[in-house]
Each structure stands twice: as structure tokens, then as C-alpha cells.
């Protein structure tokens, strides 16, 4: 029996219908601006986000990095949460590709507030880097898939703008935030200059993200996409899957959220696993191993693999499980059962 893969929502495989639209996609050379399926997706994505223009890119990392590069010059400073994806998981790219410094902010669950932004912005002096850009991540991955309250986004972005900062939203999982709150992507996007969203996480497309913004900024994103090696030729084949995913797999994210809650409730019953149910807001479940479990996260995940369930350790005693299109409710129940029996054997040993 295949494993129940909860390592990430990136592991989904294209559905038969998605493969059909890919196979039938009309394509052209997108570097020459000739791919109609790419153009159509970019227009539809920009419209959904309430922005003038959009640029399709191969990955969420490239969406963030082309945006950072578009807003900054080398030597500038970017303000972001210390737990943000751009700091942890993008291989130092802000330094390597844009030559910027990052000023990390603290705060529970990957969120921060107005006073911190105000305190982080540098005075205008020949000593300091220019504070140029604020990056918000919603949902916040390492914060447990946390959703930013809209009022907090409003006050943080209003203050940042008043302080002269540009604003980027890492919305790789903005779709999940929308499902959790009932808001539309454009409700969030209006507070930001650029927004990156991913088609290949919860939405289930095999490849691709996009950045939306005003025409001039997207022209810069487009330029840096080429510079960073992300301009592709007959990529309409990918855009077709992304477009299909955006149109057909958005509403069903509610199922992933319900499955996340079900998994969390099951895990919370298992002695030795520490988990705060109130923090399960979207499709992610994070839990900690308490001292009664004589394994660290890596050992736990390795043992669990032997039981046919895959999860990822994100800290020495912290584990992440992510729900997605390829995980059904019976699979969630099976995962809970396997963990319970694995730990039952361990705890009583
Ligand atoms: N996140 C991946 C890993 O890189 C950790 C995952 O499995 O969650 N922004 C956010 C908030 C993300 O979570 C990710 C991917 C990205 C950007 C980057 O996307 P890709 O992997 O397409 O470069």
C-alpha cells in the first residue's frame, strides 16, 4: 500500500483531468511573449488578485525572490518575520540574488505588529541601510499555517506604507487563508504591492507560482525572472494545469482544513504528543514530542515511515503534517491509528 504522505502539500500529483488540459494546452514561446495559455493564466490571476498584471514563474521561491529583487537595490534592508520562508528555506537567496539584508522580527506564530515594524525601520542616515520592503507571509508556514487577522494586516501595512516601505505578500498559501476566513484573495492583495501565490501546493498543480502587482513592478519581476533563469518556453503546458487548479481546486481546500482538524484531534488524544488545537487553522498540523517520547523528531519520522506514514521534523522535537488533495479522510484515520500503535508500543516498552 502506498505511503500516506503528509510531508507537504507540494507532493500532490496532477489529476487525470489536469493532465488532459495540459495535453491539450495551446502553447507558444513565452520568452517571445507568444504562449496564449500563459497569457490567459496571468490575466486571470491578476484579475483574481485585483491587480493590473501578473507573471508566471516556476516556483514559490522564484516568485518571492523576483519580487524582492524588483523592490530593492543591493544594500537595502528587508523586514520580515524571523520564521519566514524567505529566511529559512530559500537558500540565502535575498543575499545572493538581491544583495539585501534582512531585519528579522519576532512574534508568536510568525506574526508581528505595528510597533515592531516602526521600531525596525531605520532612520535616514548615511550609516544605515535603507529600509525598503516589508514581507508578510500568509498563511505562515512555520507558524503552523497561521492566518493573519485582516485587522492586523491593515494596521501593519498602513504603518509600513506611511514609513515609506514597499510591501510584498508571500501568499504561497493565501488560498488557504481565504478558505479559513471567507475572504477573497483580492481582499488581502489590495494591501500589498506584490503578491506571490502558489499553484503547486494546496491547489495541486505540478509546477508554478505567479506574482501579481502593478504593470511597472511586474515588468521588473519579468526581467528578473529571465535573469534568474526562470523564463520558460512552451510553459503553457504548466499554466494550463495551474489555471485548472485555480478554477477547480480552490473550494475543496476546505476538505484539507477539515482533515487537518481531524488529524489534530486524533493526535491530541495520544499520550506524549503535545498539540494546541486552537492553533490548527488551515491545512497544517504541528505537534511536539514531550519528554516521555524517547525519540527526537528525525527518529520519530523515520520510524513512522516504516508504518507507511510520512511527516517532516521542523525542529529537534517538532513535527509537521500537511493535508492536501491526495489525502482522504480514511487515510487520516489510518495515520492516527498507526501513530497511536507505534507510540503505544514505544511508551509501554
Ligand atoms: N514551502 C515548502 C518548503 O520549502 C518548506 C513546504 O513544504 O512547505 N513560501 C512559502 C510560505 C512556502 O511554504 C514555500 C514552500 C515557498 C514559499 C516556496 O515554494 P517553492 O517550494 O515552490 O519554491
Q: Which helices and strands appear, and what pairs or packs with what?
A:
Blueprint: E1 4-5, H1 16-23, H2 36-49, E2 53-57, H3 60-71, E3 77-81, H4 85-88, H5 93-98, E4 101-105, H6 114-120, E5 131-137, H7 150-162, E6 166-171, H8 174-181, H9 185-189, E7 194-198, E8 209-213, H10 215-227, H11 236-248, H12 253-268, E9 273-274, E10 284-289, H13 297-306, E11 309-310, E12 312-315, E13 318-322, H14 329-348
Parallel strand pairs: 1-11, 3-4, 3-5, 5-6, 6-7
Antiparallel strand pairs: 2-8, 7-8, 9-10, 10-13, 12-13
Could you name the key traits of this structure?
single chain; 349 residues; alpha/beta; Aspartate Aminotransferase, domain 2; Aspartate Aminotransferase, domain 1; seven-stranded mixed sheet; four-stranded antiparallel sheet; 14 helices; 43% helix; binds ligand TLP
Describe the structure.
- With 349 residues, the chain is α/β, with parallel strands linked by helices.
- The chain folds into two domains: 16-248, 3-Layer(aba) Sandwich (Aspartate Aminotransferase, domain 2); 252-342, Aspartate Aminotransferase, domain 1, CATH 3.90.1150.10.
- Helices cover 43% and strands 17% of the residues.
- It has 14 helices and 13 strands.
- The chain has helices spanning 16-23, 36-49, 60-71, 85-88, 93-98, 114-120, 150-162, 174-181, 185-189, 215-227, 236-248, 253-268, 297-306, 329-348, and strands at 4-5, 53-57, 77-81, 101-105, 131-137, 166-171, 194-198, 209-213, 273-274, 284-289, 309-310, 312-315, 318-322.
- Strands 2-8-7-6-5-3-4 form a seven-stranded mixed sheet, with helices on both faces. Strands 9-10-13-12 form a four-stranded antiparallel sheet. A two-stranded parallel ribbon has the order 1-11.
- Helix 1 runs antiparallel to helix 11, helix 2 runs parallel beside helix 11 (236-248) and helix 12 (253-268) packs parallel to helix 14 (329-348).
- It is globular, with a radius of gyration of 21 Å.
- It starts with a strand and ends with a helix.
- The structure holds ligand TLP.
- Ligand TLP binds at residues 8, 10, 59-61, 64, 85, 89, 137, 141, 170, 172, 198, 209.
